[in-house]
Amino acid sequence: MIQVTINNKFQKREDTYKEILSNGVLDDLVKKVTGHTDYDVKYIDKTNKGRLVVIEQENEKDFVCLSDDCPAGRNSYFQSFPTTVNKYILDKHTNKRIFYYNLPTLDKINIETDYHRMMYRLMATIGTEFLNATEYLKEPIVAFNSVADFIRIRTNELSKKQNNSTYVTVDESNNTVIYGKVYGANKYETTLISIAMNAITMAKTTLYEFVEKDLNELPKASRKALEKIGINIVKMDSEIEKHEFEKGDSLRSPKYISNLLAIYGPKHCAFCDCDIPQLIQGAHIYPVADIKKLAVPLEKKIEMATDGKNGLWLCNNHHKLLDSGIITLSTNGDIKINTEDLEKTSLNFIKNSLVLSRLPEDVITPNFVSYLNKRISAAS
């Protein structure tokens, strides 16, 4: 016999799940999941976290997340889904599936914006089956096929329309690195992106949690779920930054990389066309070695060393050429080659590698120029 279990109370509403699942809605849901119409349903007098319907039959357990029928905004439409995913991952049942069922919204809102489509694709990437999406959405839902695919969509379709709460990149060892905010609704997006990125890569996945306001880590259930699937979670706090700053002059701190991602977007060399993330590094304009020599408090040194305006994305070659002084920058953004002691073949190679003669105007900010002047003064 098919057993359906539903916690009946909403967290912030007076009506119940039994009411919104009447008029054949639950019958349709169960039939789409099981292929059958005969079932027993048990409504429990508890708060429903995850807008979850659990269906059990023989040796199978199914988790069905319901969309928000009264969404207050685009985020609220999906906020319950990560809670369902956490329960799905942490459940010990060996034969289980996860579904999403769209309920009609009481207010006619657009549930097919670029952001909505991205979230649907993330849900599909972790294996979610959509029971009735074709009744509500014009376009089919396609899972992301790689981390690069997600970064491209996030950058091209969404970066100009929202302030990203979560940044994703690939490091020099081909590992997936996620920098996620955990405050407010951001925690839902961070959880879902982390699970989805981990599902499409064989490489190691690390999540760095932003310390923000009074919250500096994901909810306990989210952390347990991410750790269960092998994601390494690291808290981005002052101790990590202090350790990174003190251990060497080639700073690769999580805060610095996340700040560069926030300012410049995905890894792409500022001097050439290279956008292979494994070959791109965060290059300091005012070098860490010179910052360490300053007679200022350690906190100020770390602030300067992790400031995204004190850097550029550069490929390995151009990073070394900048650090060695073979390539220099002027305060108006001109990219120059120091031809002294260069063989003609070397000079031609460098010239051909540069696709710009001047950095874009939006890069040459007052803070950037200030760091550049400090670099020039330290080198003279």
Automatic annotation (TrEMBL):
InterPro entries: HNH_nuc (IPR003615). It comes from Fructilactobacillus sanfranciscensis (strain TMW 1.1304) (Lactobacillus sanfranciscensis). Keywords: Plasmid. Residues 269-329 form the HNH nuclease domain. This is HNH nuclease domain-containing protein.
